[in-house]
Amino acid sequence: MKNLKIIILTLVIAAAAGILGAVIFIFSGIYNIAANEPHNKLTLWMIDEMRERSVEVRAEGIDVGSLNDPGLVELGFSHYHDMCQDCHGGPGYDTEEFAQGLYPRPPSMAGEDAQELSDAELYWIIKNGLKMTGMPEFGSTHSEKALRALVAFTRRIPKMEVKEYEDMVNKLAAQSH
Questions:
Q1: pLDDT tens digits, 89-141
Q2: Torsional class of 65: left (φ above 0), alpha (ψ -120 to 50), beta (otherwise)
Q3: How far is residue 123's CA from residue 152's CA, in Å, rounded to a whole number?
Q4: Beta carbons of 128 and 58 less than 8 angstroms apart
Q5: How far apart are CA 14 and CA 139, in angstroms?
Q6: Of 123, 125, 174, which Cα lies nearest the Cα of 149?
Q7: Is 135 helix (H, G, I), strand (E, B) or coil?
Q8: Whether the bond into 106 is cis, omega within 30 of 0
Q9: Core-most of 47, 49, 135, 176, by most CB within 10 Å?
Q10: Helix (H, G, I), strand (E, B) or coil at 38
């Protein structure tokens, strides 16, 4: 019984010391949160693992359905070009200057970081956004069809030539006039 009391007391003291250490760390201002100063490796690993696992868990069971409809890709393009291209770029389009200063930097939708996500994970991110990344949520402003269309278009980007994207830009401009 005496050993159990010592173990419990040790755990309580260790927890209190951990909490006190965390409070001192938080209020000391020692951790640099500037966007032009990358996280240290441990912090970056923790954030990346937490984000990846959170998205995986929340995307489980989401059925995005078929994304092969050309109309879905076209609808996704119109939303993507208006709202996403500034940060994520597009074939023949660089990201805008403000997006180049974001930390973490928004990934290229043609790149591995975006394309290795499942359709359900990509859908979940588009719908819900990601805290502390600059990625807004579009679930409150877009229909389910528009969200699925953004996934469909994102899947098309790596295969898209600059001319094809530019043709879509011109068609969209002509429709809005």
A1: 999 999 999 999 999 999 999 999 999 999 999 999 999 999 989 999 999 99
A2: left
A3: 10
A4: yes
A5: 43
A6: 123
A7: strand
A8: no
A9: 135
A10: coil
Q: Which two tokens stand for residue 90?
A: 């597009």
Amino acid at 144: E
**How far is 154 from 109, CA to CA, in rounded Å?**
6
Place of tokens 């909490």: 19
Q: Give residues with Cβ within 8 angstroms of 109, minimum separation 6.
A: 80, 84, 88, 89, 90, 115, 154, 157, 158
| Tokens representing residue 120 in the block | 């359900």
What letter does residue 111 receive in the DSSP assignment?
Answer: S
131's tokens: 């805290």
Which of 119, 129, 132 has its CA nearest to residue 47?
A: 132
Cite the DSSP H helix spans in 29-118.
41-59, 70-83, 85-88, 97-100, 112-115
- What amino acid occupies position 173? A
